[in-house]
Write a structure and sequence with these properties.
alpha+beta, D-amino Acid Aminotransferase, Chain A, domain 1, 3 domains, four-stranded antiparallel β-sheet, 12 strands, globular
Length: 311
């Protein structure tokens, strides 16, 4: 399907139940952010058009009825098995490690750095991303050298924004994309990104070139979030590691639901996470009182203690 400035203008205005057109008054009168609605995620209402509305920044002209792209973050990517996402195990893929921070997009427009996150150009996270990109390495210089035609995507790891997996604070260059409709999610390969990051003192995730089955096997035992997976012909998916999934699940459950998971139904716990995590369940039962009322980060500290003890 061919997307265009006119077609996407018509689509998002005809589907306000799926996509929000968010004003950015502190940035510019006609600058908008296209963001899919929460119901799309929870009710699996994805369409090819909605998948492109993951924080895409546009110049919206009601006079010409066009959405001109100013900033182009990656297309929505699904986890393995989500919406039938999978690959033959002998497929050769590129698999960068997922960094557990928050996304920041950077483009140079009219000689100025323009930064957004998934959903906003002026949120506290956008400002945090701007500060990190300004202070860490020479990301602005990199973006300026390519001009408005390229959107650079980074993972931002900030000390004031802890996540499930502890990461080294910094700015990680993830990808680059041309600021147009109907273009692939990536316009540079991982080797080129490594070279650009080294030239501009930016961090990069490690990445692997191997068969998909080998990535799946490796993902079962890693202590980080998991991997992105790319084929040579543009097929994409995410792999989340079991350790990340169980840590996130237990850290964010309400106390009532957590009590049920830890004490009421061991079969359900085992079927969801596998037998190797039953020892974690027993470990948390012994720390039940403090764990139940703990904050997310306090719970994660206890879970990490468990994984350190069983090394």
């Amino acid at each position: 399907m061919e997307l265009s400035e006119e077609y996407m203008y018509d689509y998002v205005h005809a589907n306000p139940n799926l996509v929000s057109i968010k004003d950015q008054p502190t940035v510019g009168e006609n600058i908008k952010v296209l963001k899919y609605k929460k119901k799309v995620f929870y009710k699996n209402l994805w369409t090819p058009e909605v998948m492109e509305c993951r924080g895409t920044v546009v110049w919206c002209s009601d006079e010409t009825k066009r959405l001109k792209i100013l900033q182009r973050p990656p297309t929505k990517t699904f986890n393995r098995f989500e919406n039938n996402r999978d690959l033959p195990l002998d497929t050769m893929v590129t698999a960068p490690r997922k960094i557990n921070g928050f996304m920041g997009a950077l483009t140079f427009i009219d000689g100025c750095p323009f930064v957004s996150t998934t959903g906003s150009c002026d949120s506290p996270f956008s400002k945090m991303a701007y500060q990190m990109l300004m202070m860490r390495g020479s990301a602005f210089k990199l973006a300026e050298s390519y001009g408005a035609g390229i959107t650079w995507t980074f993972e931002i790891v900030h000390k004031d924004d802890p996540h499930i997996v502890p990461e080294d604070t910094g700015v990680y260059l993830l990808s680059a994309r041309r600021t147009e409709w109907n273009v692939p999610s990536r316009c540079f390969d991982e080797s080129t990104l490594d070279k650009l990051a080294a030239e501009h003192s930016l961090k990069r995730p490690e990445w692997y070139r191997m068969h998909f089955g080998d990535v799946v096997t490796m993902n079962q035992t890693v202590n980080h979030e998991g991997f992105m997976v790319y084929t040579d012909d543009g097929y994409e998916m995410k792999l989340k590691s079991p350790r990340y999934i169980v840590s996130k699940f237990l850290a964010r459950l309400s106390p009532i639901k957590l009590q049920g998971v830890l004490f009421n139904d061991p079969i359900q716990f085992e079927s969801r996470f596998g037998g190797e995590f039953m020892l974690l369940r027993s470990f948390l039962q012994n720390r039940y009182t403090g764990f139940l009322g703990a904050t997310e980060q306090q719970r994660l500290s206890v879970i990490r203690e468990f994984f350190r003890l069983i090394k």
